[in-house]
Amino acid sequence: MTHTSVVDDVAVIAKRWNNTRGSLIMALHDLQSRHGYVPRESAMKLAKYMDVPLARIYEVLTFYNYFKLKPPGKHVVSVCMGTACYLKGAPGIYHDITKHLGIKSGETTPNGEFHLQIVRCIGCCGLAPVVTINEQLLAKMNPHDAVEHICQIKEGAEK
Amino acid sequence: MIHHSLEPPERTVNMVNAIINGVPVQVEQGTTILDAGHKVHVKIPTLCKHPDLDATAACGICIVRIKNTPKMLRACCTPIEDGMDITTEDPEIIQVRRSVLELILSKHPNQCLTCGRNQNCELQTLAADFNLVWDGLDNIVPQLPTDTSTLSIKLDPKKCITCGRCIQVCQEIQNVWALSFLQRGIETRIAPAGDINLADSPCVRCGQCSAHCPTGAIVEYDETEAVWSKLLDPHAYCVAQIAPAVRVAIGEAFGFEPGTNLTGKIYAALRRMGFKAVFDTNFGADLTIVEEASEFVERFTKGKSVLPLITSCCPAWVDFMEKFHGDMIPHFSTCKSPHAMVGALAKTYYAQKMKLNPAKIFMVSIMPCTAKKFEICRSKEMQASGFQDVDVSLTTRELARMIKQSGIDFITVPDDQPDHILGAYTGAGTIFGATGGVMEAALRTAYNLITGSNPPRFEFEVVRGLQGVKEGEINIVGTKVRVAVAHGLGNVEYVINKVREAKDKGAEMPYHFIEVMACPGGCVGGGGQPYGVTDVLRKARAKGLYHEDGSGLWRCSHQNPYVQQLYADFLEKPLSHKSESLLHTGYTNRPAYQK
């Protein structure tokens, strides 16, 4: 994406939300869905267009877990640590994935392929422990199988 | 405390009656339990609440018990109601407060002995008052880096108790928005947007965050070591100057009444510490006025350049203007601040008179200010003498520490004199330290420049006091001069916007002359002054300055015989080529964020 188109995006988003009170979060959602994260350059433009201090924007961005300040990995691996998954062995799954990928929750592999995150209950406790990779739900996981799924994606990428 | 509106809203006052610790109290409706307590000599402990700031109820140390209600309430944000029966201390309340402190200390570093706020820390005081025992605590301190990038203040987020005072001051009172709370819960921390360094943020280095921080999380950037080492250097010729507001505040660090004028003792202490000459920034203030009033009269009577003229002696304001109000640059006085003028003259005029090598002169300014630390190297004009004009700028707090280290009995040391050549001053120079003071001093001299005689009355009451914006019209023998004075950067926009509106409409300008000071109260409330500032202290310090002005022989800057001599021997006349090159500067638009 070129520099100009990023700037234009922000202007459009700001225009959409500028006259609605309390709409900063909505504008930030728009930015994130456009880019997968909120680039600093866009946040600065938004501050200008919406006449909101950049400090306030970052207060919001860092308060909510949902917003990302860095480009996310291509594949998002989420390990559920809700009560049921936790009791059914999610910590062991998480441990092995961190060892395999070499990153902790909230981090992205240096090659940008995988982003790892811990999430709370995703609403299917009967399938615990649960891991999701992108939109794919992996039920009744164990550490070995979870790592195996990640390996398959890696191999697929290499082919 | 600082009012944006100029007229107080009309209201009817309803009184409510309550009981605090068995003592009946009557207060205005809306008064908090905390404030009502003061009325009956009850002190409820606070940490997040500061008298300058709205209550945020962040810390919970001020909880009190109200009869017939099940839970304890926070005194800082609970308005008293008719018939309330309040208990502020009992064993259970004390235990809860102790728990609050224990939780705070559980993530606070145990570094009191080497902390910038040692023996002057609100958290440390409470920990002592409540008999906290460290042993029981499992201490987990977040590993966050210290930020000294501004070279004016030191931000150590490890010591932050997330009370939010600095953020309220930075965002609401100063409208700078350099500091913010990032993340939430246990991970909450204070930092500029996106974890950049403060020096890359909109921070204007006013230091009001440090003046309001209850702990050592934000303190001045200490440069006392650099000064000590120069004082020990036999090749260095150390000279010092003290700002107007320092003399009426430093006493607080030695147990004097706030506002006590200790000018003579400071001169004496500086000489004993080894400074070879002691100047007074008040002299520089007089010189600033002669230059600035000439600049004003030139613009006012001869239609040169643009009006209103805006004062430029406050470096935090200059920084703020360059970042947020760059369109006002043509209105800015080109005068440097008083201490910068004295710095430039010490290494030229003084060096020539005394036959000194200016390269060996080491100029130390003692200022109520943290922003001055940045100002001294903000642009190439700050090396007008061919060297850096001011080498180090210390805050009042740093000087107090140096005096204590040097073993001088400050309470009993006899008064001394300054070196008059750059140290004699008038009352007009003294009042620079209070909001409205620069305006008042300039009006006295402008009156003389326009009419040829001094004003019949030296006091211009309309520009005095702590109201956030002060507006007035001064009659100089039939010529009306409209002025505005703003202090606390959050009050600037009101004044600047009026100028912008008039410009847009092509209408007559609302003012001829505007004074702005970044800190509430002006320099007496500066970010480098002794801790614990409130309006009570601001008033007491300002009173000390106005008292000296009122009791002096000379009330107008142009009466200063040493300023007159400076022009006769060296500068020729105000706004001369030499004056312009040594005493004036320029401004440029700067981005609020460097990153």
How would you explain this protein's 3D organization?
- The complex is a heterodimer of chains A (159) and B (595).
- Chain A contains 7 helices and 4 strands, in the order ααααβααβββα.
- Chain A has 159 residues and is of the alpha+beta class.
- Chain A has 2 domains: 3-63; 75-158, 3-Layer(aba) Sandwich (Glutaredoxin).
- In chain A, strands 2-1-3-4 form a 4-stranded mixed sheet, covered by helices on one side.
- The longest helix of chain A has 16 residues, at 143-158.
- The model of chain A has no long low-confidence stretch (mean pLDDT 90).
- The radius of gyration of chain B is 25 Å and the shape is globular.
- Chain B folds into 3 domains: 15-104, Ubiquitin-like (UB roll) (Roll), CATH 3.10.20; 106-220, 2-Layer Sandwich (Alpha-Beta Plaits); 225-583, Rossmann fold (3-Layer(aba) Sandwich), CATH 3.40.50.1780.
- Chain B is 33% helix and 13% strand.
Number of E strands of chain B? 17
Rounded to an integer in angstroms, the radius of gyration calculated over CA atoms of chain A is: 18 Å
**How can the largest sheet of chain A be summarized?**
4 strands, mixed
- Rg over C-alpha atoms of chain B, rounded to the nearest angstrom: 25 Å
Q: Which structural category do the helix and sheet elements of chain B fall into?
A: alpha/beta
What spatial form of chain A do the alpha-carbon principal axes imply? elongated
Q: Give the terminus-to-terminus CA distance of chain A.
A: 27 Å
Spatial sequence of strands, sheet with the most strands of chain B: 2-1-5-3-4
Tally of helical segments of chain A? 7
The CATH top-level class label of the largest domain in chain A: Alpha Beta
Helix content of chain B: 25-40%
Helix content of chain A: 40-55%
